[in-house]
Amino acid sequence: MKIARFSHGERIRYGVVDEGDLVVLAGDPLFAGFETTGERVPLADATLLAPVIPRSKVVCVGKNYRDHAAEMGGEAPAEPLLFLKPNTAVIGPGDAIVRPPQSQRTDFEGELAVVIGRIAKNVPAENALDHVFGYTIGNDVTARDLQRSDGQWSRAKGFDTFCPLGPVIETEFDLDGGARVISRVGGEVRQDGPISDMVHTVPDIIAYASAAFTLLPGDVILTGTPAGVGPFVAGDTLEVEITGIGVLRNTARDA
Ligand code: MG
Predict the structure, then answer these.
(1) Residues 173-183: what's their mean pLDDT?
(2) Which of 79, 144, 189, 225 has the highest count of CB atoms within 10 angstroms of its CB?
(3) pTM of the entire structure?
């Protein structure tokens, strides 16, 4: 089932994608289940928004694909390397990524995003997937020059608009189904890697993260990016596609 958050007219609501329509839900399915209102809105008439606004945080994993760790000049860490993005960085499909004047080099990083559905604290990997609501697509936008010069990553990865999410949450995504993360800039493929290349798996990441932070329903985990990251400039169209979920498309502009 694909869940969208959308605006139509003056209202923001949730819906289940059904053919070319959204079947409107009575409330936020993370908290109110899947009761429908009986109304249908054509997808073409709706504006899709970030399918979730992280309740408290976006937890990210650095260097979680060996070929990406190598292109950054190192090895994949033995344990997940975690950092946070503020929820104020989140934007939706179609929204503009704004390149800040403080940075001369902003990079895209296409990533599988996990949406947490139940409070998770000290969750063992064996039970970790019970705490997942579904999966969406994220772009871990990074001011690469500031990441290097700051020495830690909060500012470089936390600017407003640096966490596009969407277009939908797939609740039945198969982690073992051969899905790939494909990123394009201006239609040209820059990244194409299978999620099976992750060093630390989704259950392991949830276990590791939840041993440190309580994960709340609506929190999001970005699981790392395959090789091929690189810069983009104002005017570029960025796409991240994950098999079985869809395509997250954003444009870039300067502040
Ligand atoms: Mg990343």
Answers:
(1) 98
(2) 225
(3) 0.97
